[in-house]
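One-letter codes give the sequence; each number marks local geometry. A record appears below:


***
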Amino acid sequence: MPQTEIYISTDIETDGPIPGPNSMLSFGSAAFAADKTLLGTFEANLATLPGAVEDPTTKEWWNTQPEAWAACHTNLQEPDAAMKSYVNWVKSLPGKPVFVAYPAGFDFLFMYWYMIRFAGESPFSFSALDIKSYAMAVLKCDYKKAVKKNMPKHWFENQPHNHKALEDAIGQGILFCNLLAANR
């Protein structure tokens, strides 16, 4: 019998646009069954990479988000320990993990780099499901029109988007599960 897919909605916060020269500051993942049952969560705030620097444009944006900036700078963990724990958590879930993000191109770039660098593997292989791309298909519209303001409000269930990684991951996971239900 094939394993059920588990959708791992993930959100990250960074101090720049690319991993290595810049650091991932925090990440949160929320594991959902297709029926929107929350199966578990994982979050970590990370120490910055040795030699990495903050991107000036990203820092300007962070200056407008003082509460979120403070939240991702508490209880810091070394990336090595955090990513190994994360990979073990994903592997412990009761199904086949599918990485889901909004936008997947950005979040998966960092998560994949950090998993390979610090844990030596990715339980997601090389792939990620992009919520905006999926919304484009469900809404039957162009990609540039598949934005949150054009999506039905009930898909969001009044979830905040406050740049605190785990809270955003939960909200995006609910959005994804609602998209999945609308498509099925």
In short: The mean pLDDT is 95. The helical segments are 56-62, 66-71, 79-92, 104-119, 131-139, 165-183.
